[in-house]
Amino acid sequence: MTTPGNDVHSDTDLLAAVRAGDTAAYGTLYERHRAAARLFACGLARDSADADDLVAETFAKVFASLRAGRGPLVAFRAYLHTTMRHVCYQRARSDRRLEFTDDLTRYDAGEPFTDPALDQLERSFAAAAFRQLPPRWRDVLWQTEVEGSTPAELAPRMGLTPNAVAVLAHRAREGLRSLYLQQHVTAGEHPECRWAGDRLAPQVRGRLAPRDAHRMHTHLGRCAECRGRLAEIREIDAFRHGPYRQRHHAGTAG
């Protein structure tokens, strides 16, 4: 065991031990990172009980991955937090598919409802994606989407023609969408999976260069895990997180 000041190496040793079948090593990782995980979960969950459930499920999923020979080799906490975000997202999406009702008539239109936990998580993904955009793209998006300025109004200030501003805004929106989708991708362990994972959003949006597209096609043909990641963000891209319909009365889940 290394000293407390050498925690990164200590975590690495513990991760290797868990892969070798040492369950006690995972207990050490749990004790070391439980408080930070609980704090992170409180920012994602609606209440204390949900946060506790989120922490437990996340640690269980990471443990299962490690025992199967997958999961992180280093940076355990970063991997844990990424997994927790995905667990939270998947749980919220599953909740959205449930329709609570004591009346199964097809004619009850219901009322629009946005899940607060999912909304908070999606806002964090969108904010992180926005921060990664080039400054000029952030500026044109803010001016057009938030301030409501038209390309003609922005053109003199940006030193462009109105048409060029419109094109820039379109590219910025597409860039934001790709980066937003990329926030949902769980990092792979194998180098080729990491390469593919970094490009899954452009793959979904049809933005990969031909050479990368060929490499991606080859990799997906032999990697079931990356095909699963691709299917997940394709669903996210298609779903677009519109509000779901909730009935007036709670009953059995349909």
TrEMBL record:
RNA polymerase sigma-70 region domain: residues covered: 29-97
Transcription regulation keyword on record: yes
GO aspect biological process, one term: DNA-templated transcription initiation
Record-level Gene Ontology MF annotations: DNA binding; sigma factor activity
A Pfam entry, by short name: Sigma70_r4_2
Domain RNA polymerase sigma factor 70 region 4 type: 128-174
Record PANTHER family: RNA POLYMERASE ECF-TYPE SIGMA FACTO, RNA POLYMERASE SIGMA FACTOR HI_1459-RELATED
Entry protein name: RNA polymerase sigma factor
Source species of the chain: Actinoplanes cyaneus
Higher taxonomy: Bacteria, Bacillati, Actinomycetota, Actinomycetes, Micromonosporales
